[in-house]
From TrEMBL:
Domain Trichome birefringence-like N-terminal residue range list: 83-135
Compartment annotation: Membrane
Name of the protein: Protein ALTERED XYLOGLUCAN 4-like
One of the record's GO molecular function terms: O-acetyltransferase activity
Top-level division of the source organism's lineage: Eukaryota
Family: Belongs to the PC-esterase family. TBL subfamily.
Keywords: Membrane, Signal-anchor, Transmembrane, Transmembrane helix
Residues forming coiled coils: none
GO cellular component: Golgi apparatus; membrane
Length: 429
């Protein structure tokens, strides 16, 4: 058995230092390869179904509403109220205003997320707004955001769902400024956008596991089984860490496959393996330890600028009546209520493991003057089985398969940026 390294972003690293321009092109073969490996391989083993309602205590919806107060705030973001309020505990309420952009006002929506273009006809899923139980979540305000991040570099570290978040951010910002496409690697995984009017740099750093990985080769071909190394951070993003002012980190969907976890002494555990001398501790265990390694690395990084790191929690998929490759679909057209989501299912468990790691990093970071915040999107998104492309993702190679992992643009994923702005201002000021 041989191993091949799958970390390949040294040219990207070079770019960040040298700022040379490079236009990436994608060959059709490569595209289909990417679609199969990046989009669908994460669904393998992924057959979580949590749409069976459970009865939970009904929420008192008559709590007082707080309005952002203009004083003691960054342009209307009242830290006093936002600090006391759990932004992530709430429900979706009807909002006749609908989405803040369309597929014509935002020209950067990737084809696979442009659901209306591919025939999605229901629009009600746009007419909902997230309402935290004890306050009002201010809507993302692109002007204020760009002023806040003036002169800064923001990095998103994660997989294709992290990229989905970036795409939503680009659409929301497009009302104020369209960035210059400064760098794109040949696989369109690592990417840099520059907003000249605000000297703001947005960087996408693609990583599967946050830590270093090698895909196992069996008889000369890639096996889909990965070795991951908990004592070695994925250099693709960690090399760029020193230049970033703000970091948003996430991981999840690549962990739903066969993985062998290594520390400096050797194999310590596995996921979905069937080996006599290695224990399968499950997806959560691997996810937790990889996140711990990444956050420890950030805390220990002496030459890093980043004072604020945000972790985005698990983004649930919504395959119903089957898995990704057995006819599973997600064709609902409205959100679920809080009583209809399963809080004892695996999604919430993964989110809770992530929260524990964030708390540990936060305790340690306090002494090192580093701050850790959380975009705890899991609960809100568990209620949005209607937000995925489903069959409307325009894929020619994989007709009949539904994408119930990524999110339509515009769509409920835009709330991630409402959360992001509120938390960034809270943590950074
Ligand atoms: C936007 O969506 C409409 C359907 O609502 C579709 O006809 C059109 O082609 C889309 N436009 C773009 C630029 O994708
Ligand atoms: C690799 O190839 C050898 C010889 O062709 C074969 O005996 C063996 O079963 C193969 N191993 C796997 C895991 O496919
Ligand atoms: C590696 O993992 C094993 C088993 O969990 C543990 O006993 C050992 O202390 C670990 N080594 C290091 C360097 O973390
Ligand atoms: C299991 O143990 C055997 C014997 O000690 C060793 O040869 C083998 O490499 C081990 N397998 C794994 C997956 O570590
Ligand atoms: C979803 O698809 C199934 C099977 O085609 C159909 O029975 C059901 O009515 C659809 N649901 C919605 C909300 O369209
Ligand atoms: C919630 O999820 C757990 C764990 O998967 C499962 O055992 C339980 O049956 C689910 N409850 C409902 C009501 O679906």
């Amino acid at each position: 058995m041989k191993y091949s390294s799958s970390s390949s972003s040294s040219s990207f690293h070079y770019f960040l230092r040298e700022r040379c321009l490079n236009k990436g092109r994608l060959s059709p073969f490569f595209m289909s390869f990417v679609l199969v490996t990046v989009i669908f391989v994460p669904f393998i083993f992924y057959s979580i179904n949590h749409l069976n309602p459970i009865s939970k205590h009904a929420l008192d919806q008559k709590l007082p509403l707080f309005k952002p107060h203009p004083s003691n705030s960054f342009r209307g973001y009242d830290n006093g109220i936002l600090k006391k309020c759990d932004l992530f505990k709430g429900h979706w309420v009807p909002d006749p205003h609908g989405s803040r952009y369309t597929n014509s006002s935002c020209t950067s929506i990737p084809d696979s997320k442009n659901c209306f273009r591919h025939g999605r006809s229901d629009r009600d899923f746009l007419n909902w707004r997230w309402k935290p139980d004890k306050c009002v979540l201010p809507r993302f305000d692109p002007k204020t955001f760009l002023e806040f991040v003036k002169g800064k570099k923001l990095g998103f570290v994660g997989d294709s769902v992290a990229r989905n978040h970036v795409e939503s951010l680009l659409c929301l910002l497009s009302k104020v400024e369209t960035p210059i496409d400064q760098y794109k690697d040949s696989e369109d995984r690592n990417r840099i956008w520059y907003f000249p009017n605000h000297d703001f740099t947005l960087i996408n750093l693609w990583t599967k596991f946050l830590v270093h990985d090698e895909e196992r080769m069996i008889n000369g071909s890639l096996s889909g089984t990965f070795n991951i190394y908990l004592n070695k951070i994925d250099e693709g993003w960690s090399k760029e860490l020193p230049i970033l002012d703000y970091v948003i980190i996430s991981d999840a969907h690549w962990f739903f496959r066969q993985i062998y976890l290594h520390n400096s002494t050797g194999v310590v555990a596995c996921v979905y393996c069937n080996s006599p001398n290695v224990t399968d501790y499950g997806v959560g265990f691997a996810l937790k330890l990889a996140l711990r390694s990444a956050l420890t690395h950030i805390n220990n990084c002496k030459n890093c600028k980043a004072k604020v790191t945000l972790v985005r929690t698990f983004s649930p998929a919504h395959f119903e009546d089957g898995g990704w490759n057995t006819g599973g679909r997600c064709n609902r057209t409205s959100p679920l209520s809080e009583s209809e989501i399963n809080m004892s299912g695996p999604e919430w468990e993964l989110r809770s493991l992530q929260m524990e790691e964030i708390e540990k990093a936060r305790k340690k970071g306090g002494k090192l003057r580093k701050r850790f915040g959380v975009l705890d999107v899991t609960r809100a998104m568990m209620m949005r089985p209607d937000g995925h492309p489903g069959e409307f993702w325009g894929n020619k190679w994989m007709k009949g398969y539904n994408d119930c992992v990524h999110w339509c643009l515009p769509g409920p994923i835009d709330v991630w940026n409402d959360f992001f702005m509120a938390v960034l201002i809270r943590e950074a000021s």
